[in-house]
Amino acid sequence: MLKWSWGTIEIRHEPDGDLMLTRDDILSRVKDKPWVSPFVKIVGVYSPSEKLIQIYENHARNACSGAAAWAVYHYKRSSPLVVDAHRDGVRDIFTLKLGKCELNLKPSYSSAGIEAVELVEDKIHVTYAGLAGGGVGSTLCRALADGVDGAEIHEEGGGDKLGRATLVIPMMTKIHIGVDDTDRPGAGATWSLANEIAFQVGKKKGIEYLNHTLVQLYPGTPEKTTNCVATVLTFAVAQDRVSFLKKEVMTRFSELTLSKHTGLAFWTGISIPDKIIRFSNLARNEVVTIEQMRSIAEDAEIQLQPITGERGLIGAVAGLGYAERQEEAVRLE
User: Fold this and answer.
1) 68 and 92 Cβ atoms separated by less than 8 Å
2) Distances (CA, A) of 282 to 225, 289, 311, 312, 321
3) What pTM, to 2 d.p., does this model score?
4) How far apart are the two ends of the chain, measured CA to CA in Å?
5) Measured between alpha carbons, how far is 228 from 315 in angstroms, rounded to an integer?
6) Predicted pLDDT of residue 19
7) Which DSSP category does 203 fall into?
8) Sites in the chain below the pLDDT cut of 50
């Protein structure tokens, strides 16, 4: 590998002729290209047991929801590596399987896609390709995102040209944390306390706060405070920071809860298992017991953590089944 300095920028020239560029390198290349609109952040998580990767992309300037919708539509059509793709406002979430494929890109019909998803040590390598504006998005715009370690720009794209780039993203772990019963009659609110805790913890090194979900549970539960709603917090965390994340969340809830029944439930992975979803559905339609909750927790490898008591563990586990189904989770059927 050859190395040389370009001002204060180090560029590494790979043997195959592609350039491995840092964010500063990209900035120097696009300063005279006003059509390059940087993505805000890209986060990647990997689940070894499922052999799946998820990529969270906060689209250009955190405002470009139209392009986010465009990417979801085209990537699902063009690439067999895309297991699922959906848009959450200006953020795209792609669930991917490992491998390589050949894209048959066609203007207007399937204009961009993902042609390779690989693991290299503790990094995720994703190769994007696209035609015209989709090519610029696949290369320069994404490469400028916070969270990208580097990018090999194979072809820059733009105009009527193909753009291709391989982005290098740190491999993180995805953790869902269910929480319930932090308030008491007359004071407190679990959803907002959980959000504030997650927001502060998400500022820590190696931790990204991804999602906040409210899950409506059975309104006839006699021990409810008022609305009988659990909360689930979802994080991406560096592999060497998992224990820190859990301890930090437990400590903050211990210090700030108003209830004697607060409980947390931790589940690690990407696709919520059907067995957890079935328990969540049960808890949304009838009263469930601590024994039922413990049984599913053991079967589904959910880590239970009483904070001030055990009763809140029921809602904490029940919320996990809807961890990323926000629109459905709030409904009463």
Assistant:
1) yes
2) 20, 11, 17, 16, 11
3) 0.90
4) 60
5) 8
6) 62
7) T
8) 1-17
CATH class as words, domain 181-329? alpha beta
Sign of CA dihedral 214, 220, 223, 227: positive
Q: pLDDT by residue (tens digit) across 185-227?
A: 878 889 999 999 999 999 999 999 999 999 999 888 777 667 6
Residues 124, 101: Cα–Cα separation, whole Å: 16
Instruction: Mark 230-252 as b/e (b = at least 16 C-beta within 10 Å).
Output: bbbbbbbbbeebbebbbebbbeb
Cα 14 from chain centroid? Answer: 30
Q: Are 128 and 114 in contact (CB under 8 A)?
A: yes
Nearest-Å Rg of the Cα atoms of the chain is: 22
Task: Quote the CA–CA distance of 178 and 318 in Å, as a whole number.
Answer: 8
Task: Please give the Cα distance from 275 to 285 (Å, whole number).
Answer: 16
Instruction: Please tell me the predicted confidence (pLDDT) of residue 1.
Output: 27
Predicted confidence at residue 224, as pLDDT, reads 65
Structure tokens, 18 = 């592609």
Domain boundaries, the chain: 2-171, 181-329
Instruction: Extract long-range pairs of 97-100: CB within 8 Å, 24+ residues apart.
Output: 97/51, 97/52, 97/53, 98/51, 98/53, 100/127
Take residue 113 and report the two structure tokens written for it: 């896609």
